[in-house]
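Q: What does the assembled structure look like for these inputs?
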Amino acid sequence: MTTSGVIELLLSHLTNELVVSANGYISRQLFHCHDRNTNFYMLGSMGLASSIALGVALAQPHRKVIAIDGDGNVLMSLGALTMIGGCRPTNLIHLVIDNEQYETTGGQCSLSAKVDLVKFALAAGYDSSSLSVSAVEFCSSVHNALRRCGTSFIVAKVGPDTGTPPRVRRSPESIAERFKAACANRDPE
Amino acid sequence: MSGAEFCALSRQLGYDFFTGVPDSTLGAIFKVLENDPQYTYVSSVREDNAIGLAVGAYLGGLTPLVLMQNSGLGHCITALASLSSLYRIPLLLVLGWRGYHQNDAPEHVMIGRLLPTLLKTIEVEYLAPSTTEVTEAMARLSQTNKEKRVTTALLLREDIVS
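A:
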């Protein structure tokens, strides 16, 4: 799988779910694949996508909220996993697209190849945690997570992508205002 | 002012989601938040996680208040610069001011001395009220952060809320 492929597969399962994406190529790829009102593109503040998603999930308990994280991001703020496991919202999916590198900054190695993130999430108190190494496994995990009441952690192992996704062409203020309005509006897009 | 009075004041001003990292100066407030079920309080593990959580809660329709010791402000600089300020999300920070008296424990002295300068540098407006000025200060800071959509901070020295 690739980052762009995983994001496309995820989007094929979604309707009006709220998505918070990590900085770097993940937000750029999500914007490039499908710029939805219900996407919040985190542009800076590396490590905080899952904390933001937890805040959204607690404020919007009747909506599914999905954090799209990267391995570098999740490793930077592992403590956030304990906050999610401790709060145990009923509606949060935490996806980690794991390419075992800091791709946006030039492909430097991350430590995710040596760390079992799936076990970390279980130890932190997530209700479910799984590893996907194929599109079939990934789709099954997403399908189950969307139907589960609780917290789901999905690590999707990906290989190198081709090309550089364009930057998010939307002002930060409009990203926030649009997402906030989408949270307030429960109708599907 | 008591911790219960401070929490009631915050709620009166519209704050309905509390998060942060515990601090002894703010101990009376945390005691109420942890024990009174009328307040929604989520304990954060680090101060920048609290900023992230508060931003998410705000986007989801709540009005967050973030509490921490001033030593934790250092962890927040990136979160304030490239998250809350970048997206113009109004946040009110309540900071316990350790090191205000320069005879505090040595680890608090430098950050305590630099706190006003640090806040000015990162463009956070602040007030450091006496006990009798807390109500007015909270109202002013709350109004500023909503009108200008900026982060503001209330600095509480020892025994201001107890």
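Residues 90 and 146 of chain B are 6 Å apart (CA to CA).
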